[in-house]
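[Q] Does anyone have a clean structure-token version of this?
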Amino acid sequence: MTEEKLVVNEQVHIPLSELSFRFARSSGPGGQHVNRTATRVELLFDVQHSPSLNEQQRELILRRLSGYIDQEGVLHLFSQSTRSQYQNREDVIARFRALMNQGLRVTPKRVPTKPSRAAKEKRLHAKRARSQTKQQRRVTREDWE
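[A] Here you go.
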């Protein structure tokens, strides 16, 4: 039996069984529909105990997505943008995938470079021009007399 997996990136595939959902009534206008149907969707993902993540990935997500994660290490996402529970569920899964992809992205190390000769000359020229402008604003003794 093959289990459906959510593909975050090439390295990370999360089984849908690791995601849990809660449903509640949405807030805002909508009349009787909003008062009777549970269209708000909350996605829960246990980052701390997920077997789909290795230790390095877990640390990255816990650090970078800390605003979405509670003290037990569970990530919470909500969606209540549409009147359909199914569409809200699809929306929250798409947002989860994007957030996880962003959280797992490894930023390349910056290679320090030196400014070129032309860049140095341009900077010095700009400094001289700025200095001239400020000198021309100064009040001299001749102006006082």
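[Q] Thanks! Anything notable?
[A] The two ends are 97 Å apart (CA to CA).
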